[in-house]
Amino acid sequence: MNKKIAILGPGGQYNHLIFRRIKELGYHAELMPLVKKTLDKIEEYDSIIIGGGPARLENNSEELKVVKELLLNEDKPVLGICLGFQAISLAYGGKLTRTQPAFGPQKIIVKEKNELFEGIPEVFLVWESHNDTVSELPKEFKVLAYAEKGHIEAAKHIKKKIYGVLFHPEVEHSQFGLKILLNFITLA
Amino acid sequence: MMKIYDKNIEEFVDELINSLRKIIGDKYVLAAVSGGVDSTVATYLTWLAVGDRVKAYIIDTGFMREGEIEKVKSLLESMGLQVNIYDASELFYNSLIGKSDAEEKRKIFRELFYETLAKLVKEENADFLVQGTIAPDWIETTGGIKTQHNVLTQIGIKPELKYGFNLIEPLANLYKDQVRMLAKYLKIPEEIRERQPFPGPGLLVRCVGEFELEKLKALKNMTVLCEDLLMKIDASQSFLAIFKKPRMTTSKEISDFIKEVKNITGIGGRGFKTFEFYERVTGIKGDSRVYSKMLGIYYKEVDLLLRAKDEIVKVFPKILKKHTRIAIMVSEPRPAGKYAIAIRAVKTSDFMTASVPYVDIKLLQNIVDEVMKDKRITQVYYDITPKPPATIEYE
Q1: How many domains are contained in chain A?
Q2: pTM of this prediction?
Q3: Which of B44, B144, B147, B341 stands the most exposed, by the fewest C-beta atoms within 10 Å?
Q4: Does A105 contact B287 at a Cβ distance shorter than 8 Å?
């Protein structure tokens, strides 16, 4: 079966690279805006990626409402990337901070064996580009990986198949990025 | 077997040629070529589709490198294409002298570029303009990072109304590495295929800040002198940019930054100096454009700084809120002279993200020696900022 992945992009440039990588992995991908109308169309997709974007998602923003509605109603696997991860955290009541901006290479350390990082070393190099970091993870989530000196790089929901990564697995400079995306797609 | 997205390359090219035939019908097409791989592949595909109904033009904007136009013309002709040169350099110079803002320079360039093409389209009785726009061009333009000279329809400009032609962009959904795969499949000469990207507005955006003819002349001269040395750097793209001579500077933020560098690398103390560039340069942080200053850092043991570059670039965005880039001074500061040169080198295949290679200090010293022969140059820097938070070019 050719799996279909919906990429909900709040305007970020790298969302186009997520699209490219998924096509290259041989799956069907569709890039869609992160708006309420999109939720009516995602029925036919097997899993959902919430991508990056330039804005900070404020607590009462339209986009965050869409993310909340999506997470509440869907049992499909969801992966938040960068802003997408921040949005998932906010949607569940987590907190963000602006004190740890990071751009470019980052060494990350996987804290717990898990399906998203299956077949990947415990320490590897990724690329990130964010002003905000998740300072307080929602209680329904647990940390999967940290940056070498600090912030949370990846997390998952304890019960549901909801994941978030702060780095960009889709860019060529992130190691094992394709493998991470493939691991996620396999969950559906 | 080579694939573009989920298609075999053979099938991809056949479909592309068929759709070009369908769009163009029995009409004529003007092709804007620069000698880069994107415009060459776009033009060549159109030529395969409709033959000599494609008229290829190189617009001489005055911002190409020395001798480049002649070289490109003969390379393209070796592939069977007929190529005309149109000299518009006076027009470009006159409209751009004295302009400083990066976006203003790029927008003036784009207008002149299309006005010139519109004139040629009319003269050639063509209906279409084919150009080599690729995905990062419109992704960065629509994302508000920088105005690429070849992006119109994606930002709502209707070329048929404004300029009198319809636009064809056969490669608009591809990235550089995919275009290179196409070039390989189409047997386009390696010299074009593996050519380093060169920005549409050319050396204009490497004369950072206010555009002056003297700056351009100095940069053209140095680009020739250093060409072979720059090619020795293990990079996907390596070039020089020219700035006004920066001034020594300090501030609370900068001294915090220096302390932190000392903390994590052990480098610092007396002899560690910082220089602020006058011009603002483009960067990209968390998907948003930033347009702010570059900080130059100097320490007598240059190689120590170079080896610590990854630690330094990781820490600076947390402390320096007003700076987008860090560059290491690789020359001794010379009191006389009015300009500084930055050496920029990056490794990437799709140009969406880029890392900065470590360069052997001897090679950097050789470049410095060449550049400093020009008495107008006072300092030479090596830019150590990856993309993000910098972009590859400065403007």
Answers
A1: 1
A2: 0.94
A3: B144
A4: no
